[in-house]
Amino acid sequence: MRASSGGDLDLDASLEAVAAARAEGRPPHLDDLVARDWGRPDLALCLLVDRSGSMHGARLAAAAVTAAACALRAPGEHAVLAFARDPVVLRPLASAQPPLRTVEEVLRLRGHGVTGLAAALRRAKVELAGARADRRVVVLLSDCRATDDEDPLPAARALPELVVLAPAGDADEARAFAARSGARLGTYEGVSATPGLLAELIDGGDRVTG
Q1: How far apart are CA 124 and CA 135, in angstroms?
Q2: Residue 99 and residue 68 in contact, taking contact as beta carbons nearer than 8 Å
Q3: What backbone phi and psi angles, to 5 degrees, belong to 15?
Q4: Where do runs of H (alpha helix) occur along the chain?
């Protein structure tokens, strides 16, 4: 921002203005100098990747693309968790892990086991508890076919915001789950559709199909 608004002077970004002012024999104007100040992130995301037996192949490829989209959308605060029966952290919220490494971790996943939605949603809430951003969104990439004995609705309703991305050809249970939990739902046909759906849903769109 302009130095006249406050903050700490950014010498590197202001060198050109300082040199121009010196050449003209005058002090530099504050409006010509650049300053930086601390700011609060606007958004924190936690991506939950379903890696149970029903999620494989193209669905895991879509998860890798979605992980990259989350890194672009919330570079300062985004977490990625994979889950079957229990959740596993692939990228903690405050990690400096490069997005490419996270994408590679997702691509190495193999679908197996039951779908423990409730445990995954609770862990996502814990992961976002330390976020500095005011807005905290859980992104659930799943067909939402819970196959353990625990009802996931209480955990879903306890989240500040929940977005569900489900494969279009297998979205009936995700649609019902989103309706009961108050989540926003997007369904995708191909691997490349998830970033656009994510943007629409985060920016306030209602249930959409891609």
Answers
A1: 14
A2: yes
A3: -60, -40
A4: 11-23, 58-73, 99-107, 117-128, 153-157, 172-181, 194-202
The distance from CA 83 to its chain's CA centroid, rounded to whole angstroms, is: 16
Are 160 and 184 spatial neighbours (Cβ–Cβ below 8 Å)?
no
Identify any residues that bridge with 186 across adjacent strands, giving them in sequence order.
165, 208
Instruction: Report the C-alpha gap between 83 and 149 in whole angstroms.
Output: 15
State the DSSP code for 93.
T
Structure tokens given for 117: 């939605």
Instruction: Please classify residue 61 by burial: count the beta carbons closer than 10 Å to its beta carbon, then call 0-12 exposed, 13-18 middle and 19+ buried.
Output: middle
Block residue for tokens 């490349």: 192
| 8-state DSSP, 28 | P
Q: How would you write the pLDDT of the chain (210 residues) with one tens digit per residue?
A: 677 777 777 888 888 888 888 888 888 888 888 887 655 568 999 999 999 876 667 888 899 999 999 999 999 899 999 999 899 999 999 888 999 999 999 998 887 778 899 999 999 999 999 999 999 999 999 999 888 889 999 999 999 999 999 999 889 999 999 999 999 999 999 888 999 999 999 987 544 444
Neighbouring-strand partners of residue 184 = 163
Sheet strands side by side (includes 162-167): 87-91, 78-83, 43-50, 135-141, 162-167, 184-188, 208-209
For 35, residues 6+ apart whose C-beta sits below 8 A from its C-beta are 1, 2, 3, 5, 6, 7, 8, 9, 10
